């Protein structure tokens, strides 16, 4: 609640955008939806820039990841005009993931000796979960098995790096970003299922909702981040 009051104006504006995106998607107002979806990431970019002043490498990498997320979401919108834009959008989101991983790695590097038990749990659970998900998708992938495997590895690394921030940053930032990454992975999983296995009614709407929650939590976690053992210029 404190965080909501602290950024009250932005939270109200984001909630309004969130509702408008879902309503326009449900009502199938395509042109309105095309305009609103990029506004979600643009709002997060402006908020994050003004709040953090991009004062260190962590904030700069997170900001760059958001720029690629904006690129990816825009390309996804254009896939109806050219199916190849879907692939380009996926590549943009993978680059977004890599910049997020790079940001989280800075926090992990600040005290690599901490929470080794938590790190082992994160590695083991990620290995089991993402291996199972890959074999769930594998019969439907055809020639895309290797690229999808590489994508799943990157996503697994994202959740592990988010988990590795434990005890290195304040708990509010850690929990917000970890929750945001979990939602992000949820959006990725729904997208993969809809694209490779079976699309279902309102899948695009569900992906949009989960994605908007994910990016909001990650950005809030980045804005509230306090490194316990600061590194120079991080």
TrEMBL record:
Domain of life according to the entry: Bacteria
Keyword Membrane: yes
This protein's GO CC annotations: membrane
Keyword Transmembrane helix: yes
Membrane topology note: Multi-pass membrane protein
Cellular localization per UniProt: Membrane
Family classification: Belongs to the TMEM86 family.
Name of protein: Putative membrane protein YhhN
Organism: Pedobacter cryoconitis
